[in-house]
Amino acid sequence: xxECTILTVLSLCPPPFINSLSLLHLSLSxxxxxxxxxxxxCVCVSSPSPECRDLxxxxxxxxxxxxxxxxxxxxxxxxxxxxxxxxxxxxxxxPLFLTGVTFPPEYPASPETLVKLTVYDVRDKARDNxxxxxSVSFLGSATFSVSDLLRSKDDQLTLNLRSSxxxxxxxxVLVSRVNMGExxxxxxxxxxxxxxxxxxxxxxxxxxxxxxxxxxxxxLTVFKxxxxxxxxxxxxxxxxxLVREQMEECTLSFSIPRQLLHLYIQEDMRRIQELRDLGELxxxxxxxxxxxxxxxxxxIAAYQETLxxxxxxxxxxxxxxxxxxxxxxxxxxxNLHTQRMRVTCPRQTDAFYDVIxxxxxxxxxxxxxxxxxxxxxxxxxAEKKSTAYQCIYYSPEHTxxxxxxxxxxxxxxxxxxxxxxxxxxxxxxxSMAGLREALKTLAGKTEQFVHALKDELVKSALLALHAAQPxxxxxxxxxxxxxxxxxxxxxxxxxxxHKEYDEEEWDRVWADVAKSLNCVIAMxxxxxxxxxxxxxxxxxxxxxxxxDVITSHNPEGDWREQLCPLVVxxxxxxxxxxxxxxxxxxxxxxxxxxCSIPQGLFLKQRRDVVFSQALAALACGFVMRxxxxxxxxxxxxxxxxxxxxxxxxxxLSTYSEEIGMLEDMEVGISDLHRVAFKITQAKxxxxxxxxxxxxxxxxxxxxxxxxxxxxxxTLPHEIKEGKALQVxxxxxxxxxxxxxxxxxxxxxxxxxxxxxxxxxxILDSYYKSLSDKVPSECLPCFQTQTDLKDLLGTLGQNVxxxxxxxxxxxxxxxxxxRRLNGIRFTSCKSAKDRTSMSVTLEQCALLRDEHQLxxxxxxxxxxCMRREGCRIENVQKNIKxxxxxxxxxxxxxxxxxxxPPEGTYGKVDS
Length: 910
Fold this sequence. Notes:
The chain is of the alpha/beta class.
């Protein structure tokens, strides 16, 4: 038949390259059947059997290097839909395959869809040319339909492997359907018995349908395009564990940067308006203001253009590594993916381990000729001090304080105004309890307002602002007046004064606020005294000086009428303070911008870019960790009492361009301490209402994470009340490539040493805070029960030890992070090659330490994950080639445990 012809042709065509398994899903649909399956192939060939006792290689005396390719064929369309492969088992006539194969959801299938297994002998897997196909020889094949598997007894099929002419039987294949997470000990024993009984190929079909409580059910609004791989590894007690890797893209890769760009634009537009609101300035200061406004306008225009381009993008939810230097994508994190490893073992509860992989947050489009942010900011600050001849120099602490005051002004003034209105409403209702409650809150917020704004910086900046206006004199007549290009730096120890402004005015403004509040408090006290006597008399308040209002005779009358003029006066006094403070702090920021032109604004743009990438990754990690821990009361308690540690592992070298990337990354990760998270209840369960939302300004952002109503109701009271949840970012870096070898021998590694030591101190401080507030039973349990304090002590010793490529720092930091319920990130330049080596090593170490992986299987498991797992799929997604971008010379400089298996690497454009 035509169908048979197609199968025969496929049998004779070796794969263009030998893929690793792709975890993919078959979606089945028929009038009587609606079901979603993950088809994964676990080819297990162990002890001899009559069918496959001796596989014959392509040569008479050759022992085969066996590989099984799995293809899905649509009989209606009659073409190959997808294909994937197991790992290669070298030099064995009785091979044992550990890797499974699955297919993606974009390939719809019906019960009539055919699955074809083809066994090849790989004659030469090592080659220099990555585009050259592997040299393979056909050994045998078998075909079955999905309906055959669904109708089979015990969810198993036994198939014969046949030669290319379809006549000679050369082995058997056992096809089994298994639901991941539902494996009982008997199921595992059955698989083991199959292996011991006869040499067979086992095809395991895994159901992707989960229960509502399945921790693999990620929020579909955030994570998408899953790629899965399945393996079967042996434990020390000769049992079998099933391991599933699942890698997904995150929609926050684009969503968070878009929101940040919108906030950046709004903030800079407000800054322009505030500069215009400074009023009339002398020609010198007015020219500086115009120049700063012009620079802000350029930044806004560039950001608007970038945002417009981002809004046009549809399709994949990640930025591939080959696009890392594209201008319009510079705010997007590089190759951001989540990866979860789920382990099913007999007599154990399923366990899962998460990691977020992302390229180092860095400004690739802007380049690294002058270094990265850490170096550029330090150099720029020094230059400002030495060359700021035309403006008043304010330190970074002062400018940060100015931004904080402006935020407090914007937040507290409307709050005080609203509380004052509540006070009048309670007075109108003659509710003394409501009056007292509103007054207590109003007094508290007013006191907070005083503490936030009554600062010497505000007072000195007000004096400096008045000196920058036309018509002033200075205390020191010998000082050159500002406004001249050759004037010296105006220091804060020679504060100018204005002929229409004296230094007592700011204090008088604050006295009016205090006096107004005292008047309100006194009036409420008087009303409370009068309440039992008579509440119905009305007497207007005499128009007197506010200080005398309370002491005057004031018969009982309408409470609102008596309170209203006092409340109005309080609001007017607060508004006057706000106007003065806002102008003063805007003037401080004008100096900072004027001293920085043009380099300062370029650095601000660079910092915006790096922070955007870092925040997108952090938000992705937080959402993933939150959903995974929704049923863990200890985790939720830790979350609101202390917060979470977010541990970034970096494999960048401290040499050439990568040292600039690391300097960018250090600042970007450090800036994440300005971020807080808040859990909210979504308005509806619509996907649009479940997207995280960013609010705030550059020096403080809050990410609001909406949860469906039912999930939100299960949270602790403190979280539901909107408590800000803190994240403590820490960064540890150890370079492992050939450039790090050069840096170790001839360069400077002080940046790496400083980063590791500083972040160890942050991690140690977090642990101490956690120990004081959260009992140890809230933390997760691990098989390796090394005390956390001992692990931290060992890490502390390693960060001060002079040792080249001390990757134990990374292992210890990752272990401590998992023991602390933290969020794990792994990065290199593009999160593609070195990151893949690190993630697979960590996964196999977890299988060894926590799930008793047989030591004889450790290297094989590592090679399987690197050759056939999610990470090689990540490489394919990024550069359209299934090769890690290493060459043999580079790998000689790598620690051995970080080297990929032969045949999986070659120098390619990344």
